[in-house]
């Protein structure tokens, strides 16, 4: 999934299609599969480096306070 596909709201449809492709592949050649296919559920929100989000917000608040003084 690319960022642009997520921004264009294509991600949910792509994931549904991928799920179908994997299920068909599993049915066609079940000996190659030892378990379930991947989890293709749609995730609405994704955070890259979630621990850094708090640090950035704190930095932004400090910067705002310095420049507004």
* Beta-strand segment tally: 0
Low-confidence stretches: none
Number of separate helices: 3
The amount of helix comes to 55-70%
Strand content: under 5%
Round the mean pLDDT to the nearest integer and report it: 79
Distance between the termini: 44 Å
How does the overall form come out from the CA principal axes?
elongated
SS content category: mainly alpha
The succession of helices and strands, N to C, reads: HHH
Described by strand count, sense and barrel closure, the largest sheet is:
none
Rg for CA atoms:
20 Å
Domain tally: 1
Give the helices and strands, then pairings.
Layout: H1 3-7, H2 11-28, H3 50-68
Verbal overview:
The chain has 69 residues and is an all-alpha fold. The protein has one domain (3-68). It is 61% helix and 0% strand. The protein has 3 helices and no strands. The longest helix has 19 residues, at 50-68.
What are the defining features of this structure?
mainly alpha, 3 helices
Task: Give a nutshell description of this structure.
The chain has about 70 residues and is an all-alpha fold. It contains 3 helices and no strands.
